[in-house]
Amino acid sequence: MGFLDREHSVAGPGWSRWLVPPAALAVHLSIGQIYAYSVFNKPLSRLISGDVQAETGAAGDWSLFQVGLIFSVALFFLGASSALFGKWVEREGPRKTMFASALLFCGGFLIAALGVSQHQLWLVILGNGVIGGIGLGLGYISPVSTLIKWFPDRPGLATGMAIMGFGGGALIGSPLGTALMARFAGDGTLGVGSTFLIMGTVYFLFMVFGALMVRIPAEGWAPAGYVPRANAAGGMISNHNVLVDQAFRTPQFWLLFAVLFLNVTAGIGVLGQASVMIQEMFSDKVLGAGAGVTAAAAAGFVGLLSIFNMAGRFFWSTISDRLGRKPTYMVFFVLGTVLYFLIPLFGNLASLALFVAGFCVILSMYGGSFATVPAYLRDLFGTANVGAIHGRLLLAWSAAAIAGPTLVNGFRDSQIKAGIPAAQAYSTVMYIMAGLLIVGFVANLLIRPVASRYWAAPPAGQEPLASPSAADD
């Protein structure tokens, strides 16, 4: 399969770099379906009872906590595979990586469909969680690294274009999954098994399209008129490169690891349980008979969050090109803290509009943090190994994928067992999320330019511009 090799994907003279974003979007919109996985949670937890409206399942049904493990495992393996295969992605190029991602991510759906039909949770976790999660990781980092190389003049815009597709995956995945489950509701699995088979096939076709379209720039290519320069305001943009193994040893890497972990933990648990949460916080018991949020309306809420998740990735990363990465993260942490403190109040007031608006803003910043962090890495460590460094940093995502849903689902279950109504079971965890963001604010505040002892030697005959504010301690 030589056409997948890196040397066969080098762009020729005159090839437009603006053809790369559609290729990236084809992959990221597909793998971003994981953000819509919550629409499957209720049906998966009622496969034996066959009644998605029932408050409790039948004997042998999986609990929501068990089903929530699928989402957590998928995102854990996303981060783990990104870290493990980061160097391989840089070496083999985006085409081979994106094709491998399609095989793994979509093959995972087929295995999960078998697990659903046999009511074997371990098979669903293996398919959508482990194998699909590895596909997520490969598909996630390869377009990001490629776009940063194509857009050195606008790295925030570039990463926003790539990663907004991942955030927008639920915009397609949520209504598609809901409609397919309704269409095949009589298949003996409440439509889940058939839906997995169809989605795996459709997403494979889109991802292969992206893999065949993508190109990498020729060695030494640069946009017309592009001149590398350091950011005079704060000196946070370096013209030096730090290789991945050296970057791993810097305090900046670990501070940024903490920044990403804390911000993602605060958002991912809510996102993974969004459909169930809004139905429980604004049920008929809260709003009155017939006025509660239905499963279809909850799917719409997940889709709306996806829009803001997607738009925030492009908006905030583009803003960061002007505002700077560090100040942009300061906004995330301050505004996010305030909103998490207010969410329980919105629930107590039974204000569905304020609740939805608050989470839309939160999810825009959640998505914005993912899109801005590759440019943050590029500023601190240069472009030479940015894909591999990004892959290792995504271990923070893996850790957050476990911590966030565990906090939300664990506190919900413990509160309900203690006799607290489901509508009020999420308040404590919202305050914990606000506390995590305060710690993240401090970690971001401590980030400084990378010390010169970590810089890689420039290529022979090339002398990069100095980074005047780079610390030497």
TrEMBL record:
<feature type="transmembrane region" description="Helical">
    <location>
        <begin position="190"/>
        <end position="214"/>
    </location>
</feature>
<dbReference type="InterPro" id="IPR036259">
    <property type="entry name" value="MFS_trans_sf"/>
</dbReference>
<feature type="domain" description="Major facilitator superfamily (MFS) profile">
    <location>
        <begin position="1"/>
        <end position="452"/>
    </location>
</feature>
<feature type="transmembrane region" description="Helical">
    <location>
        <begin position="97"/>
        <end position="115"/>
    </location>
</feature>
<dbReference type="InterPro" id="IPR011701">
    <property type="entry name" value="MFS"/>
</dbReference>
<feature type="transmembrane region" description="Helical">
    <location>
        <begin position="286"/>
        <end position="308"/>
    </location>
</feature>
<dbReference type="InterPro" id="IPR020846">
    <property type="entry name" value="MFS_dom"/>
</dbReference>
<dbReference type="InterPro" id="IPR050327">
    <property type="entry name" value="Proton-linked_MCT"/>
</dbReference>
<dbReference type="Pfam" id="PF07690">
    <property type="entry name" value="MFS_1"/>
</dbReference>
<keyword id="KW-1133">Transmembrane helix</keyword>
<feature type="transmembrane region" description="Helical">
    <location>
        <begin position="329"/>
        <end position="346"/>
    </location>
</feature>
<protein>
    <submittedName>
        <fullName>MFS family permease</fullName>
    </submittedName>
</protein>
<feature type="transmembrane region" description="Helical">
    <location>
        <begin position="352"/>
        <end position="377"/>
    </location>
</feature>
<keyword id="KW-0812">Transmembrane</keyword>
<feature type="transmembrane region" description="Helical">
    <location>
        <begin position="162"/>
        <end position="184"/>
    </location>
</feature>
<feature type="transmembrane region" description="Helical">
    <location>
        <begin position="428"/>
        <end position="447"/>
    </location>
</feature>
<feature type="transmembrane region" description="Helical">
    <location>
        <begin position="389"/>
        <end position="408"/>
    </location>
</feature>
<feature type="transmembrane region" description="Helical">
    <location>
        <begin position="64"/>
        <end position="85"/>
    </location>
</feature>
<keyword id="KW-0472">Membrane</keyword>
<feature type="transmembrane region" description="Helical">
    <location>
        <begin position="121"/>
        <end position="141"/>
    </location>
</feature>
<dbReference type="GO" id="GO:0022857">
    <property type="term" value="F:transmembrane transporter activity"/>
</dbReference>
<feature type="transmembrane region" description="Helical">
    <location>
        <begin position="253"/>
        <end position="274"/>
    </location>
</feature>
